[in-house]
Amino acid sequence: MRRLVVISNRVADLTRTAQAGGLAVGLADSLRERGGVWMGWDGQSLKYEAEPEPRIRKIGEVTQATIPLTQQDYSDYYLGFANSVLWPLFHYRLDLVDFKTAFLDGYRRVNAKFANALMAILKPDDLVWIHDYHLIPLAAELRRRGCQQRMGFFLHIPFPPPEILAAVPRHRWLVESLLEFDVIGFQTNTDLGNLHHYVEDNLGSWIKPDERIRIGEREVIAGCFPIGIDVDSFIAMAEQPNDEVQIETQRRAILGRRQIIGVDRLDYTKGLPDRLRAFARLLELYPEMRKSVALMQIATPTREEVDAYVSIRKELEALSGEINGRFADFNWTPVRYIHGTVPRDALAALYRASPVGFVTPLRDGMNLVAKEYVAAQSMDNPGVLVLSKFAGAAEDLHEALIVNPYDVDDMARNLRRALTMPLEERQKRQKALMERIRRHDAKNWLNTFMAALEDEQTQPSA
Which CATH number goes with the domain that contains 391? Predict the structure, then answer.
């Protein structure tokens, strides 16, 4: 088996059970299965410029290679172009795009640093798998240094339509850099279609009947490879007793109360303010729900240096306080808002103990919380997933209650439907959803992408 070399902006700590975000969870599960090398930024910011030397350590079957960045790199590349330009752009939020030439310069500079560090550890027959929007130009940088290895790219977030992508300067350079990869993977067919439209409309390239993109004398495989989770591992975690969760579950059962759960990174793309408003609207429209249901919203801190994230945190804290002030009783708190990280084993227990999973991003690449919630449920008495139509998972998880995250009343009505759904219907939906998350699990994601990367004649599955 050829060695797999994975590159992402950050590497996850494989010794921890708490991971925030689909990339960390998906790659950690996949690399534990296959083994290989995982390279990325080590989280350190140096004051002065230095050509990074990878720091190597071995964890099980995975070798981690990490490099530092300078403080200027962090500001221009990470906070700047990656998270103040590409992140809002790819999530259709043109109002939040803050383009500066220095950001683009930093983005190109850091991708060149990654390429230099990677060239020092690559072997001739390696398979190179590069991840996410931080590293779109990395294949082009590696090609310029003579890299001939097969290179694949997977985008964990949405890919926008041409009319949105064209709003950022140098969008053509960005897509041409992307097309230097041999295989390009997306979460959904919508994202894949957006790339097809762009290359046809802006690059004069054409899509072959087998959906390969013809670029001059080259052909690029682009396909839909929906990311998944290690289903059996998550089921095992959900079935393990957790004393604190069990005590709280018993308390709610005695009081006749149920829990709606939401788990997200604290991000403006996740639709958190409207989610809280929808819960408040549930209590307004259906007074019988008061004192019988509560919302637990866990929001994991992320990118706290970016102003937009500071604003969303303040808004959520104010909203949760407002809802509690309006509806709470001396022995009932409607909203439990937690700004922190919870280990995956504890999350699994919380999902299992919650009759409703509330996953309503305004735009998302996939959203593995939706799949984790399904995996955690018991067939004897399963909960109901309420899922945004704009989450990538909605393209596959049809048996969830699909909602419009911009429509507060629609979400409130579906919350009530979930809370009052008969057992037989819940079991029927759960059975179908389990079949779907097993079909597109972490192993399938890894194997189908690797098949396309290892054999250029292999086609990605839709």
Answer: 3.40.50.2000
* Own/partner pairs, 19-25, CB within 8 angstroms, 24+ separation: 19/344, 20/265, 20/300, 20/302, 20/341, 21/265, 21/302, 22/156, 22/227, 22/365, 22/366, 22/367, 22/368, 23/131, 23/132, 23/156, 25/229, 25/344, 25/368
| Structural domains in the chain (count) | 2
Does one domain contain both 281 and 349? Answer: yes
Residue range(s) defining the domain that contains residue 278: 231-439
With tokens 């819960």, the residue in question is: 279
The answer on 378 and 265 residing in a single domain is yes
Tens-place pLDDT, residues 377-396: 999 999 999 999 999 999 99
pLDDT digits (tens, 9 = 90+) for 48-102: 666 667 888 888 888 999 998 999 999 999 999 999 999 999 999 999 999 999 9
Structure tokens at 457: 């004649």
User: What is the C-alpha separation between 249 and 258, in angstroms, rounded?
Assistant: 9
Instruction: Quote the distance between the C-alpha of residue 95 and its chain's center.
Output: 22
> Model's pTM, two decimal places?
0.92
- For residues 184 and 324, state if they share a domain: no
As a whole number of angstroms, the distance between CA 233 and CA 135 comes to 30
Do 172 and 268 sit in the same domain of this protein?
Answer: no
Instruction: Give the residue carrying structure tokens 């009759």.
Output: 355
Active site residue ranges: 156, 364
DSSP secondary structure of 55-73: EEEEETTEEEEEEEEEHHH
Rg value, the chain, Cα: 22
Residue 352 falls inside a structural domain: yes
Relative to beta strand 55-59, strand 62-70 is antiparallel
